[in-house]
Design brief:
alpha/beta; two-stranded antiparallel ribbon; 11 helices; 7 strands
Length: 249
């Protein structure tokens, strides 16, 4: 192990240990998601750029909750009227006007809860979805870097940050710029937000599953499709939600 690898391991481990400790925001998120699912709701997960990995960690993976749906920008191309060429640039991610247009392509119901991940918490599409969800009366949970978001200017016309819109704000503990180390010459490396966000996603999933189990019910979770009976188990539970949950590429 090189010195830089050891340093990065320490940076990651320190943050994961903090996130593994008492955390009211995560506890509140577990309660909100549990209540939503118990009432027949679905978790609507959204993130853009590398934060889409958080939505993938929440929705549609082995060991994850069945009642989850990943909202993704490319659905505006797959099912909407946007052009494929628009997916290649940052302007799509920063477009503040896509919130209602994107949500209209999904079967979203009143008891659903939103979890939105964005390290910076200021891009237009992120705020567009958050504000649209709030306007519809949904609870919004944010996963963001408080260090970063408070040091940058909001890009949405509302002038708001995701952390200022959400009902529950979970700090992913990433530093400003995401990089945890500096190489000679000031080059930043060692991005950590994806790792901490994945841990947060799993802690929420585990917490919700435990809460449902404590209520005497079997947590509705995916098992790997690559073990015998996996496909049959998963499809039977997915069928309970129909088009409310999608597993598009």
């Amino acid at each position: 192990m090189t010195d830089l690898t050891a340093q990065f391991l320490k940076e990651v481990s320190t943050r994961l240990e903090r996130l593994a400790g008492p955390n009211k925001a995560i506890d509140d998120a577990v309660v909100a998601v549990t209540e939503s699912l118990e009432a027949g709701g679905v978790v609507q997960a959204f993130g853009t750029g590398h934060s889409e990995a958080f939505a993938m960690e929440i929705a549609g993976r082995a060991g994850g909750l069945i009642a989850t749906n990943k909202i993704q920008l490319r659905t505006l191309v797959l099912r909407g009227d946007r052009k494929v060429s628009e997916l290649g640039g940052a302007d799509f991610e920063r477009d503040p006007n896509i919130g209602e247009n994107l949500l209209a392509l999904f079967d979203i119901q009143p008891r659903d809860v939103f979890i939105i991940a964005s390290n910076s918490g200021v891009n237009g599409s992120i705020l567009g979805i958050a504000l649209a969800a709030k306007a519809r009366g949904h609870k919004v949970i944010a996963v963001t870097s408080l260090d970063h978001t408070m040091k940058v200017k909001p890009k949405h016309p509302s002038g708001k940050r995701l952390s200022e819109v959400a009902d529950i704000v979970i700090d992913n503990l990433a530093p400003f710029g995401d990089s945890t180390m500096q190489l000679e010459g000031g080059v930043g490396v060692g991005a950590v937000s994806s790792l901490t966000a994945a841990f947060i996603a799993q802690r929420i999933t585990i917490g919700v599953s435990e809460a449902i189990r404590q209520r005497g019910k079997t947590p509705p979770v995916y098992i790997s499709a690559n073990i015998p009976g996996g496909d049959e188990h998963n499809r039977a539970l997915e069928d309970l939600y129909g088009e409310r949950i999608r597993r598009e590429a």
